[in-house]
């Protein structure tokens, strides 16, 4: 769950369909089973034990899986299906892709989790 993805999901959950007033059914899919709070990564460089605090649980209801394929239903943009790596198939009316971001900077989590940053970084500081 990226910051933008979580924000979009929260906004959509508080919305409703204009035609019926029915609440939207929002499904989030995330490939990781955790959320990494990257703004706190700098602190880990001077305080490696802080790394565990940067790994947070995902919000309730997030499916831990990877999107393998997006199949729109037609040219009109009216829905489609997501095929997940697990083989699960999800239908959608509207799709928001919030893929997160990356950067080439020298400070980031190694191996995909902040906890490994502490383990890899402890021996490297003088």
UniProtKB/TrEMBL annotation:
GO molecular function, one term: flavin adenine dinucleotide binding
Gene Ontology cellular-component terms listed: cytoplasm
Species for this entry: Chloropicon laureae
Annotated TM spans: none
Entry protein name: FAD/NAD(P)-binding domain-containing protein
Keyword hit for Flavoprotein: yes
Keywords, sorted A to Z: FAD, Flavoprotein, Oxidoreductase
